[in-house]
Amino acid sequence: MSNMEIRPIQSRAELEEVYNLLETCFPISKSYFQSRLDHYTAYRFDTTWVAVVDGVIASTVQIFPYICRVENVTLKVAGIGSVATKPEYRGQGLGLQILQKLTEWMAQEGYDLSLLFASIHPFYEKLGWSIVPETEYRLPSEQFSSRISLGSPDSDTAVHSPYWVKPLELSGDLKQVAAIYEQTNQERTLSRVRDSVYWQDVRQSAEWLEGTWSAALLDGAVAAYGRLGRRNPWDNEAITLEELCYLPGHESAILPILSHLAAQHPDIKTWKFRLPPDHALLPLLKEWDAEQTASDLMMWKMIRLTETLQIMKPVLERRLREESVGSFRLALRCAEQSALLIYEEEHLAIVANYDSGKAATLEFQQPGLVTMLLHGYNSDITVDYCPVVQLEPGAHPPVNELLQVMFPFQNSVFYLTDKF
Questions:
Q1: Count of structural domains, the chain
Q2: Lower CB density within 10 Å: C or N end of the chain?
Q3: Are 142 and 286 members of one domain?
């Protein structure tokens, strides 16, 4: 009978074993995985988990911690990546057992949510992660090229644009790029908080260095920048615009940047775009008849519902006050987690332990709950209303309107630059 243990790695030597395992399982060199951790200042061994079978590291899962915004508050998110098992150990449920242990560890470590990117959904759904669709736009290369300048001196963009567009230099342009990112996303829900250490680390990250960067300068200063993701070995004929940020008043820098980026990838057949809903490029994509699809790559898991709502309390309280909402007591429940919201005299309390028999309760499926928290409530979200106790009539809007007040539409975005 095999001896198996699930735990974080304990040494540099074990980390090297993990790198070798990942190189065996993915069509990417070992150096790619090394660049993601070796140059990450905040990296800790306890974010690399393994299943050790008879002394052999047989399976691994990596946590990529980050902080995301919900307006002006922040949540701690556990990004999940580098999930791999040696071929000879597959079929034994090792990855599944690591993720089960990790869920307990994430709660203990104060993570609010977990996010992963996956095309094989059933495996992760069994463990509690759920697809939360994101809007993606697609254009065939011919259609895209006909709509933008590809740098021809005879093109209108080349003649009239006041911007000088060049490859972004991480050394010289990084400080200005960081400032543009912060100004664009300082209260944008779902965007990652990028501190100075983050920008220092990216200079040596393969994920960043293998992408294609362009910067638009006006009077010598960066006014906008864009990034295409690295070419995907599984889909080498498509490429994604992962980030395109601009200073207010510089929306016209978008087309010159797209032209510059496109000129560096003339063989691409399909262009993909993931943008926040208020982005200046979106009206153009709709005008160009870009195909709008629902991407199912992002899967979320709620780790701590009550604590997440506690963190969001100042935001929720402000929204309720602005709409002059009256007093109410209402519980939100998802799977085995629930929290009671008590709003009285313009103050909100979030209660974990309460008598469920005395509280009107809204039951959510996890995709709907995460969508509501991070994107805003909409009528497509399924909510089961369990009115054990009726809410006091007239003191507040109807339940669906109350949810829209507490969780209004958000111009949310997770930039794929930060995927793991």
A1: 3
A2: N
A3: yes
